[in-house]
Amino acid sequence: MFGVADPDIEISVATYVKLLRAARSVVARLEPLLAANGLTTTQLGVLEAILHRGPLTHRQLGRKVLTSAGNLSDVIDKLETRGLVRRVRCPEDRRLVHVDLTDSGRCLIERLFPDHARDIARAMSGLDPAKLAELGELLRTLGMAAADPPLVTPCLESHLPP
Question: Is 21 inside any structural domain?
Fold first, then answer.
């Protein structure tokens, strides 16, 4: 690998590429069902989170669907325009706004989610349940370790603005 002689770094890069390719392959199998229903992966994530957790604030939804605050506002705006969600100001603390499903949104996600879950299972069927559980644990561990503050290499550091 260019500029890298450390085998630990090489295996990390190779595994990273495999992780991204696998994720893209799974998402590519799932997107047609969503697109047929006029939804993006993030929009489905919002509907699914509210279905399973009840009304959530923007902040709570952002943590659930792993998207930026700006993108989340756009996603919620589009779902609201379609009549699938509504924003409800909290009467106890008017600063808080919860996002909840409308009847149409609940009907859509309740109809769509079982098929989506089966599509996920089919896309993940290259691994048996024991391997999937093991992969889940490995990915959780990786995600927690990767969430630590990033290290800035000296090469990149010299190119960062002051």
Answer: yes
